[in-house]
Design a protein that fits this description.
This protein folds into two domains: about 110 residues, 2-Layer Sandwich (Histidine-containing Protein, Chain: A); about 80 residues, Histidine-containing Protein, Chain: A (2-Layer Sandwich). Helix content is about 45%, strand content about 25%. It has six helices and eight strands. The chain has about 200 residues and is an alpha/beta fold. The radius of gyration is 17 Å and the shape is globular. Strands 3-4-5 form a three-stranded mixed beta sheet. A three-stranded mixed beta sheet has the order 6-7-8. Helix 1 runs antiparallel to helix 2.
């Protein structure tokens, strides 16, 4: 009985999240007008994301707020903070168990490895990069998820071409105090359904 209730709640959660409040957006902050994925790919990715979030939440309720998951073309990108290294491994395993997953990038950090000052600096770095991407005419900034952890910038998204991809990385490298830029940027031509 409890499994049926949990399944029903999960289904309602998944279906409700597919209906956006803003026309023209789909999923978590992805604008359809700038997203080169097909609607089918977007739906598949959103279902994978919601499935993973539901399973993480069933594992530990605190993961609902502390862990963020993005999915592009079956590739999962995890961010957030956990208390112990064992939790990071468990979350990675859950991500790999998601049906249809092609790869998992884990940028989850362990709490206690950063302080208030470094967290504030990380927020500043992310804001500076987001602003730079918005003002750069060669970049469609809505196609990227940005996360800064301990002065390392993680960029996850889809670029239209190599020029845009290189421009995003160059903008990230320009920001003062950045130690490393870790980019997981896929070209439209690299998406699985575009190779058919």
């Amino acid at each position: 009985m409890i499994k049926k209730i949990i399944s029903l709640i999960s289904l309602i959660f998944i279906l409700a999240s597919c209906i956006g409040n803003n026309i023209g957006t789909f999923g978590k902050g992805v604008s359809i007008s700038f997203d080169p994925r097909t609607v089918g790919m977007q739906i598949d990715d959103t279902l994978m994301q919601k499935n993973l979030v539901a399973r993480l939440t069933l594992t530990e309720k605190k993961y609902f707020l502390s862990i963020q998951a993005e999915v592009l073309d079956g590739r999962i990108f995890l961010t957030g903070r956990v208390d112990k290294p064992v939790e990071k491994i468990k979350i990675t395993k859950l991500a790999w168990e998601t049906k249809g997953v092609r790869s998992v990038k884990n940028a989850i950090t362990i709490k206690g490895q950063s302080n208030f000052k470094s967290t504030a600096k990380d927020i500043l770095i992310t804001s500076q990069l987001r602003t730079a991407l918005i003002f750069n005419k060669l970049i469609k900034s809505r196609n990227y998820t940005l996360e800064t952890i301990n002065k390392n910038i993680y960029i996850f998204g889809i670029s239209m071409n190599d020029e845009e991809k290189n421009e995003v990385i160059k903008e990230a490298q320009k920001i003062y105090d950045v130690e490393e830029v870790i980019s997981t940027i896929y070209l439209v031509s690299e998406l699985s359904r575009n190779k058919i």
